[in-house]
Specification:
With 313 residues, the protein is mostly beta strands. It has one domain: Lipocalin, CATH 2.40.128. The chain has a 14-stranded antiparallel barrel with strand order 1-2-3-4-5-8-9-10-11-12-13-16-17-19. Strand 3 and strand 4 form a beta hairpin. The radius of gyration is 19 Å and the shape is globular. It starts with 14 loop residues before the first helix and ends with a strand. 40% of the residues are buried.
């Protein structure tokens, strides 16, 4: 479920501190994304106050080769792909029930020193949300499904969940976001999250919310510029992870894959209902953390590029 993360200092507790608290950040990741969009949309035009029933998105990114650390030799690159579809059913007033599905996959190349060559997940979306300007300002969601390397089974089944709410700190200017979330394969299994959103002007806002702190500039009605940090965390059940030197010898272990990066992206909304995003930047670190076995492998920095398409109708 991958479900970003300069804007690093926009995070209330500071990016450097949060990045080291990777298990907690991973659970919090995604708690506040919808709240950010809902608050940012408070200045939207009246004819934009429509609730889309169907939501589709496709994202892909490539991160170049980085050197392996932790006494390992070689290099590793990565490719990420994500496909999502959701449908909203009206419940009462601005409350909607959202259901759908998502498939995502990481592919790892280069000399991976015995690490997984891919990780993937297929899961459902089930959520009850309060919709403001076509985005969820509050809600609760679960994402039951399989998070695995190759084998799909009960041991790869997980149910990540999130509960979140946004609220004004200063009318029409400053907002707070609070949330809590958890999953069976996270460490710890439950943790809080949150942040702040500052509407600096009608065209500029600061989104200090994990996992995507960003400075956002609306260049026009059709173009948006985003300077952002990004924290990506997700856990999977692996198969056999055996390094040739036997320094890593694990079977059926849970791995938490993480990535810290920063970049710039440009989104075009000219061809509605489609929004097309192009971006790029630098990935500072990618890590495979087998936290139950107290083992980890880190890949050094490299440039990345991404492209995405979203449609709401």
């Amino acid at each position: 479920m991958i479900k970003s993360r300069a804007a690093f200092l926009a995070v209330p507790c500071g990016f450097a501190t949060v990045a080291r608290m990777s298990p907690l950040v991973r659970i919090a990741a995604g708690l506040c994304l919808s709240c950010t969009a809902a608050i940012a949309g408070t200045a939207a035009k009246p004819d934009e106050d429509k609730t889309a029933r169907d939501i589709f998105s496709y994202d892909t990114s490539y991160t170049g080769g980085g050197s392996l650390k932790n006494n390992a030799t070689g290099r590793g690159d990565s490719h990420y792909t994500d496909f999502t579809y959701d449908h909203r059913f009206p419940v009462s007033g601005k409350w909607y029930f959202r259901t759908g599905f998502e498939y995502e996959r990481f592919d790892f190349g280069g000399s991976q020193a015995g690490l997984p060559n891919h990780l993937q997940a297929a899961f459902a979306h089930l959520a009850l949300e309060y919709i403001v300007q076509d985005h969820a300002g509050a809600g609760i969601s679960i994402e039951p499904g399989f998070y695995f390397q190759n084998r799909v089974g009960i041991e790869s089944f997980d149910v990540p969940w999130r509960l979140w709410i946004s609220f004004p700190l200063k009318k029409d200017r400053l907002f707070g976001v609070l949330g809590v979330g958890g999953a069976l394969y996270q460490d710890p299994v439950v943790a809080p999250g949150g942040g702040i959103i500052w509407l600096i002007s009608e065209k500029v806002r600061l989104e200090g919310v994990i996992p995507k702190p960003a400075l956002v500039v609306d260049l026009s009605d059709d173009w948006e510029l985003r300077i952002h940090g990004e924290l990506l965390f997700e856990s999977f059940r692996t198969d056999d992870v055996i390094r040739p030197s036997r320094a890593l010898n694990l079977h059926n272990a849970v791995v938490e894959y993480s990535e810290y990066r920063a970049g710039v992206q440009l989104t075009c909304n000219r061809w509605k209902p489609f929004a097309i995003t192009l971006g790029g930047g630098y990935s500072f670190e990618r890590e495979f953390h087998f936290f139950r076995a107290n083992q980890r492998q880190t890949i050094g920095g490299a440039r990345y590029a991404k492209v995405g398409v979203e449609a709401k109708f």
